[in-house]
Amino acid sequence: MSDLRSSLLGQYEVSSELADPDCVIGFSFGTDTSMQGVNYRLAISAMACGDRATDYGYDANVPTLMERMLFDALPEWAEPSYVIETPISDTSAKQGGTWEVLRNAKAYMDEEGLSRPFLVAHAFLVGRVAAQAVMQGMQPVVRGGLPRHFDWSSQQWWTKHQALWIPREYIGQKVLKRRGQL
Questions:
Q1: Is the pLDDT of residue 1 over 60?
Q2: CATH number of 3-178
Q3: To 10 degrees, the CA torsion angle through 84, 42, 20, 134?
Q4: Residue 18: left (phi > 0), alpha (psi -120 to 50), or beta?
């Protein structure tokens, strides 16, 4: 299944036969930062990937980069290596969004000599994130077990339910392609 189609359906391919990831990038989904929300699960998962990379069979623990929304969902004791500051994505994709998050992450990664990120994102988003990461010169690693729950309390209407996500993502992909971001 193509990476783009997978972001419509939430069925993504887990990476295989990969070089060791050298960092983790965590992406938000919706706007809920409570312990019950999907962003909390994504934030904890991103931190665990970075802190426990050796448990996944890789050589060393790696830096964790994450969106501000995920950082806001973390317990106070958790400290990612880098917080990516971007506006919350809007329906026009003119501000924020995965392309902007990746662009900011890439700047940090270039400074640190990194290129192979674990991508921690919602199951319905990770296919597009992986495609955009490749376009920005990264060699993304996608792992299994990513959250599939939608964010009923989100300020972003398209992240509240799969029935809202699919048409918005379909149109959004066309817009991103026209902009050269997909």
A1: no
A2: 3.40.50
A3: -60
A4: beta
